[in-house]
Specification:
By secondary structure, this protein is of the alpha/beta class. The protein is 38% helix and 29% strand. It has 2 domains: 3-91, Translation initiation factor 3 (IF-3), N-terminal domain (Ubiquitin-like (UB roll), Roll), CATH 3.10.20; 97-181, Translation initiation factor 3 (IF-3), C-terminal domain (Translation Initiation Factor IF3, 2-Layer Sandwich), CATH 3.30.110.10. The protein is built from 5 helices and 8 strands, in the order H-E-E-H-E-E-H-E-H-E-H-E-E. It has a 4-stranded mixed β-sheet. Helix 1 runs parallel beside helix 3.
Length: 182
């Protein structure tokens, strides 16, 4: 699989570094395969040195004077860049919205279990959407449902600093509120 098709199969948008004849600088600072400094070379000498080893000359940065280039496999270099990007994206997933569903006749022990889950989500930096579904005659007792959600928020608030992003809202099939960590 060549580097172009490797990049096309990924969903990550990555700026492809210049390599071999795409590099426009006259001289480059060269880094070897193991990361050792090789010195400043003329571009044609650096490309021929890379070709002798059966590898590519890859531009690492063009912000330095002269630009820094590395000898290595271009496909492997692209793959490692994509891997780093995926790791960064996976690490920055905080801010997701997690849902916790309460029932109208929830017991205190079940409520405490849901509170522990909400606390865990909030400590990770996620938002928590608390939903209480109302069925049949429960819809006419929505005030009791509001009290259940307020009790949930009160107990959770005593354990962790929270902020209510969206107040308790009556929806078609129940009640919901969105909570954030302060």
């Amino acid at each position: 699989m060549d580097a172009g098709s490797l990049l096309a199969t990924s969903t990550i948008k990555l700026i492809k570094p210049q390599y071999n004849n795409q590099i426009k600088a006259e001289t480059v600072r060269l880094v070897g395969e193991e990361g050792q400094q090789l010195g400043v070379f003329n571009l044609s000498d650096a490309i021929s040195l890379a070709k002798e080893k059966g590898l590519d000359l890859i531009m690492v940065t063009d912000k330095a004077i002269p630009p820094v280039c590395k000898i290595g496999d271009y496909g492997k270099h692209l793959y490692s860049l994509q891997k780093k990007e995926r790791k960064n994206i996976a690490g920055s997933k905080h801010g997701e919205t997690k849902s916790i569903r309460l029932s109208f006749n929830i017991s205190d022990n079940d409520l405490n279990t849901r509170i522990l889950s909400a606390e865990k989500f909030l400590k990770k930096g996620d938002k928590v959407n608390v939903e209480l579904k109302l069925k049949g005659r429960e819809k006419q007792l929505s005030d009791v449902g509001v009290q259940k959600i307020k009790k949930f928020i009160e107990i959770l608030g005593s354990k962790i600093d929270i902020k209510i992003e969206k107040d308790i809202k009556k929806e078609l099939k129940g009640l919901s509120v969105t909570i954030l960590k302060k």
